[in-house]
Design a protein that fits this description.
This protein is an all-alpha fold and 159 residues long. It folds into 2 domains: 9-75, lambda repressor-like DNA-binding domains (434 Repressor (Amino-terminal Domain)), CATH 1.10.260.40; 81-149, lambda repressor-like DNA-binding domains (434 Repressor (Amino-terminal Domain), Orthogonal Bundle). Helices cover 57% and strands 0% of the residues. The protein is built from 9 helices and no strands. It has helices at 9-17, 23-30, 34-42, 49-65, 86-92, 97-104, 108-115, 123-133, 137-149.
Length: 159
């Protein structure tokens, strides 16, 4: 289960309310419990990528009817470009680890190691990721390097 890191609840509410769509109607159209969407909007829960993808699809159907420009994930998932790692790019593409791993022909744990920068990139993986994530090969390398250089979070036990 992958959560959309960088999800901005305020932008989500504005996107929904900006076309006059109620939370109840969005929940019904997307097949997502209304309480789940409420939790996203309150910022108490971060959406799963697969649920956010469906919600954006339904918002965009309604935006087309309202003659509004489509909403991209980048309008709801906010991570500074200079800070994006591969998992951030995957979230922006609204893809789950399972989907990307299957397309690459690798396991999800292997993808996770690549995204964390602990497994080297091959040229074939770089090319495929660039295509899937709609970014350049240079950005794939940069995002991988950011993850590889990131300082680990320390877990301190209670005494």
């Amino acid at each position: 289960m992958t959560r959309a890191n960088g999800f901005d609840p305020g932008r989500f509410v504005a996107a929904r309310e900006g076309i006059g769509l109620s939370r109840t109607d969005l929940a019904r159209l997307a097949g997502i419990p209304e309480t789940t969407i409420l939790r996203w909007e309150l910022g108490t829960h971060v959406p799963r990528i697969e649920h956010l993808r469906v919600a954006i699809e339904k918002l965009n159907e309604m935006r087309r009817r309202a003659k509004r420009a489509p909403l991209a994930a980048g309008g709801l998932i906010v991570v500074a470009p200079a800070e994006r790692d591969l998992s951030d790019h995957r979230h922006l593409a609204l893809l789950t680890p399972r989907e990307v791993a299957a397309e690459l022909g690798i396991s999800v744990p292997t993808l996770t190691r690549i995204e964390k920068g602990s497994r080297p990139l091959t040229s074939a993986v770089v090319e495929s990721l660039a295509d899937m994530l709609r970014i350049s090969a240079d950005e794939v390398h940069s995002a991988w390097s950011r993850a590889n250089r990131r300082m680990p979070e320390l877990t301190v036990g209670e005494h």
